[in-house]
Amino acid sequence: MGAQVTQSVIAMQPSNAKAAGWMAGWLTLMLVLLVAGREATRELDVFQIMEMRSVIGLLMLYPLIHANGGFSRMKTLRPLTHIVRNIVHYAAQYGWFLALTLIPLAQVVAIEFTMPIWTALLAVSFIGERLNVWKVLAIVLGLIGVIVIVQPGVAQISPGQLIMVLAAMGFGAAIVMVKSLTRTDTVLVIIFWMLVIQSAIGLVPAVYTWHWPSAHIWPWILVIAFCGTYSHYCFAQAMRYADATVVVPMDFLRVPLSATLGWLLYSERLDAATVIGAALILTGNLLNLKRS
User: Do residues 284 and 142 make contact, with C-beta atoms less than 8 angstroms apart?
Assistant: First the structure.
């Protein structure tokens, strides 16, 4: 893994296959994070969980930092981009959790996966990526698949829905900034500054809401820290090998995979709509990977 970090950013050769491999790592860690997060939030406040994830994650990242030359190699020529990216990402995460308390989960998930639309539009507008028919098809099929799975009801727009739309836009903007940063900074530098900046952002609210975790919650906290750190490592690596408009639609797979996980671990219903939606999502991704 260390060899991947020290590769020249400019010399990286595009590869949809390698991007898909790193996205497989992202999806796996995000699914584990889903379970760990559900268990941890039974006892701890979200601000505290996010702060512990960043601080412990930084400690877990140190061996990789040391293997690649130490903190002196974590310098960046684009500190402002890192700061803006992490403020946006942190706010989007908070908005996502807040929306969970205001609107049904199905609506949260459906609105969250409008994120690839914002990502694609911003990537085209700000970093010069191009849309083609296959990328558009992957996005459209993915959105249709998500709608089929969650079957959101038609209702009057609520504050929670507006907050979730803003969160989805924030996630899209953060992804585009990650793609831009991979052109000048290594993945390790991007993750290092994410953990440092978000630790600073969340320190005060975490202290205010602090509750010492019980013994059985600590393992879940460690899992959250590891998965939260290295899932972003996998995602940033995927962005180095392919356009954001290729990488992001792969994340649609998280919806049917999460539904399957819920069925296996929590006896949540896995119905025909989930199967059909998963098929649409997978079809769009395969077409995109084959034709891009």
Answer: yes
